[in-house]
Amino acid sequence: MVMEKPSPLLVGREFVRQYYTLLNKAPDFLHRFYGRNSSYVHGGLDPNGKVAEAVYGQAEIHKKVMSLQFSECHTKIRHVDAHATLSDGVVVQVLGELSNNGQPMRKFMQTFVLAPEELSLNYNSYKNLECLSFSDLIVNC
Question: Which residues form the signal peptide (predicted)?
């Protein structure tokens, strides 16, 4: 019997559930979602006010996540949208609020591009691309 491929929205919602649960409870394992060809960008600006650079590969992503010192992290997911992409991938857009280290909640937007290998709905999957921006850092032109 051939199993029907899950819808992009189902994949996206399950991925978001697993990803943010791990972020809240065990951020030191968050790098397991990424592979050696993955990229990760956190925030719009670095501490010096320059545009944040992407890091590549599971090891560098792990270093970056550890440098963010996630502790007492809490997220409120407000909206998840997901659509099919080329080559059977899924792009996931997340809107929500994030608090780290007891700081006030900050609104964020996060985009994930999931590669086909990830569609198993398994927390050990990895993604190819991620970009997170806080809405208080977005400048309107």
Answer: none
Closest to 41 measured CA to CA, from 126, 99, 128, 125: 128
Q: What are phi and psi of 4, to 5 degrees?
A: -75, 140
Q: Where are the domains of the chain?
A: 8-137
Burial class (CB in 10 A: 0-12, 13-18, 19+), 22: middle
Q: Under 8 Å CB-to-CB from 11, ≥6 apart: which residues?
A: 82, 90, 92, 114, 118, 119, 121
> Phi then psi for 103, rounded to 5 degrees?
-75, 165
CB 80 within 8 A of CB 16: yes
C-alpha of 138 from chain center: 18
The pLDDT tens digits for 76-93 are 999 999 999 887 889 999
Distance CA 79, CA 84 (A): 17
Does domain 8-137 sit in CATH 3.40.120.10?
Answer: no
pLDDT in tens, 27-37: 999 988 888 88
Instruction: Write phi, then psi, for 117 (nearest 5 degrees).
Output: -60, -20
20: Cα separation from own chain's centroid: 8
